[in-house]
Specification:
The protein is α/β, with parallel strands linked by helices. It contains 8 helices and 9 strands. Strand 7, helix 7 and strand 8 form a beta-alpha-beta unit. The protein starts with a helix and ends in a 5-residue tail after the last strand.
Amino acid sequence: MDTELLHKFIELIVAEVVRRVARLEREKQHPEQVMVLLAAPVAYPKELKALLKTQFGEGYTFLSFVQNCGIQDDGMLFADRLGQSETLVKLTAAKTVILVGPRLELLGQIAQGEDKDFLSYLTVRSVLWRKDVRLYLDFEPPKFKRNTFLEGVASSIETLRQMNVAVCPYYTGDAAAAIGATLITEADVLAAAQTKDRTITARVGAIITPAARDALRATDVAVHYEGETT
């Protein structure tokens, strides 16, 4: 068998193994390992659920800080009913913490490390505890606009990225489709090199084959993880 053909065949086998392992991991994951914090009414509930299903299957739990969050879910938890002590216990046990649609003021508080507000306290603590913290926005992160309120928003988001918080606009219908690669092969890189944005979006921890790494070095294709925009 031709060496190049054998190499591609091996990559396909590895890809299938990774996909099956990822599926099994999602199936056995306890829902409360992924806590989805609803900071305000959800603007795009359908798109949010599609993104969560792509990333975690059914293995996540909503924790709402508002009464009318806009999402119907039998397993929904409400922070005011749990109380602060029980809510803190839930967050402590979680591996992944996702903050959805926070107010712009709250974004600034978290970026500055302020923890007077209970929700900002929980988010800042999750970062300090080195959990997998993600920020799902219902808008595209603004470009830097000096001397406007957008300057503060852009600065807060950039600070959160530096704190290893993955930032993902979830409102578009194709947000879920853009996330999910568990293996990046040479063929993926070469295909991405022919696209306009020249990027590959992958899950955190995705496997990049040696041939793919060589192709990345030979092209200007970039790898973005878990929907993060930079």
